[in-house]
Structures are given as structure tokens and as C-alpha cells.
Amino acid sequence: MSMLIINDTVEEITDKTFLKPTCTRWCSEYYAVERVVEIGLDKAVECETALGLSIMTSADLKFLMSFIKVMRSIVAAMKLIEGESHCYVGQLIPTIMGLQRKLQTAGEDPTMYPLTEALIAGLRKRFDCTLQSEGHQVSTMLHPKFKLAFLPDEQSRMQGRQLLLKYMEQVQREIAEPSALLPGGSSSEADDDEDLYSLLNKPEQAGSSLSDEVIIIKSVYLSIWWFHHVV
Questions:
Q1: Is residue 68 very low, low, confident or very high in pLDDT (cuts 50, 70, 90)?
Q2: What is the rounded distance in angstroms from the CA atom of residue 69 to the CA atom of residue 73?
């Protein structure tokens, strides 16, 4: 039976079509299962009967609904971090922490325990270094949505304040040393034909460092103002 006939049959019965998972689209398995749950057991059974397929049971549908409940938070997190216009490094730690908490409370159905445990273990293996990264922590503290709220207790928030001040002092020191803003060193000694980046050390390019310095200074002063008035 051709795919066209199958699609026409399903659409005639449900006014929709089933979705086929594909490796080129994130979360496509989730959306495919979600469509089956959305169509419902009765319509799904009617489609399977018309197509001569095995009949789905209420236990099967319950399993799919539990899968949707567990994976919904994964899909929400992926939507947040795959954005092109409103996606920031400072969102990563709170997203991971929120996802871990959601998964820890999502396993009401015992059949989902292997899935939730595997997801939590995978997050821990992949993102533990990110959660401990000072750079990511500072980025999160500088995000106006989170500030210090993602830190679990007063002691960790105090440590966060100290870390933020340390990074601001480091940026101020770098601003005070103009050479830190310029490309370094030895590439100017290499042959232009062999060094692709020798143009970065040419005198005519040095003018761009002044505007870069102004931008950095403005960013630091805004960050210091935010820290003293908001944190």
C-alpha cells in the first residue's frame, strides 16, 4: 500500500495525518507521538482497522501519554537553547537545573523510570562541567532574568557575588592594558604568504581597537552599575 493511500485514509478519518520522525528535525519522535495522542485511541484504532494494521490498546496509549509527559520538558528546553534571536549563554545553567528537577518529578509511571534515569544520567555526564564553570555562572548572574536566583542558598549567593566582582576587576585590568586588546605577538614575524592572520598586526587595522575598547568600557560600567543597584 502506497504512502499516499495511507495518508489519504488517515486524513479522511481524522482530518489530520500521522507524522513521520526524521533525523533532520529535532524532537520529531516527540511530535509524532504527540500527534497519535492528540488523535486519540478511537480514531487511531479506526485508522489501523482500515489499513489492516495491529490494533493499539488503551495500555499502549497510556504508555505514549507517559512518554509525552516525561519528554515535554526536554522539548521545552531544546526550544529555549536552539533559538536564534533570544538565546544567551546565561540561560544554559538555569535551563539544565530546571530540566533536572522536572525529570526527577515526572516519573509517576513505573514504565518511564528507565527513560527518566537515562535522561538524568545523560544530563549529568554532559553538563556537570558546565554547571561548575565560572564563566557560565557569571553569564547567568549577568542575565537580568536570573541574577543570583538560580543559586540554591545564601552561602552560594555570597560566593556568586564575590565571583562576579572578581570577573569585573579582571575586565577592568584588561582595559587598563591596551596591549591586551590587540592581537598578539609572533605572527608579524612570519612570512605573509604562510601566515593567514598576519593582516591582524598591520598598522591600518589598529584603529578598530579603539572602538572595541569603548564598547568594552561601556559594558563594564553598565555591569558594575547593575551589580550595585540590582543584586
A1: very high
A2: 8
